[in-house]
Amino acid sequence: MTPEQRHKNMAAIRGKDTKPELIVRKGLWRRGFRYRLYSSRLPGHPDLVLRKYRTCIFVNGCFWHGHRVPTTVEGNLTGEGSDCCKIPKTHTDFWVKKIERNRERDVKSQQQLSKLGWHCITVWECELKPKTRERTLDALAYTLNKIWLEDHSLKKAYEPMEEDGALGWAAEERPIV
């Protein structure tokens, strides 16, 4: 590609309402979950915010966030691609630095959300391929339900009743009236 063609292609990539986001949104809506989009009040501007579950969902593109890209011992990206993300062969240093900045920003915003009491879930673009899409969405629904149950469970369990108390006859035969 010429530099002009590459520029045109990269400029056409959107940051909101991407195909993976729409898949997650439709899947959650079908399963009865209600959400808000792109909350500007929260750090990192999560893609989906479920207030009832105190959960933020980030739908990340594998390329832009370096999914499964190998790292060096120091924690830097190697510049090699993974099975779902290929680093371009031209301007590799630029792309590696850009992806590292994106990763650092993701970690920082999720740490801030965690300090505020929010749960964070990341859904990767490769997990939404047609073969694994339903399994991913079912796992997401399961995780949200589990979060809700854990957040709303009783803090103190009931203590067992004594057998010879007021209703002690429950263990024995019930008196006939």
Descriptive report:
The structure is a single chain. The chain is an alpha+beta fold and 177 residues long. Helix content is 38%, strand content 10%. It has helices at residues 3-11, 19-30, 62-65, 92-115, 133-151; strands at 36-37, 48-50, 55-60, 119-124. Strands 1-2-3-4 form a four-stranded mixed β-sheet, sandwiched between helices. Strand 2 (48-50) and strand 3 form a beta hairpin. The model has no long low-confidence stretch (mean pLDDT 81).
Brief sketch in words of this structure:
This protein has 177 residues and is of the alpha+beta class.
Instruction: Please give the radius of gyration in angstroms.
Output: 24 Å
Number of strands: 4
Mean pLDDT, all residues? 81
The helix/strand class is: alpha+beta
List the main descriptive attributes of the protein structure presented here.
alpha+beta; about 10% strand; four-stranded mixed β-sheet; 5 helices; about 180 residues; elongated
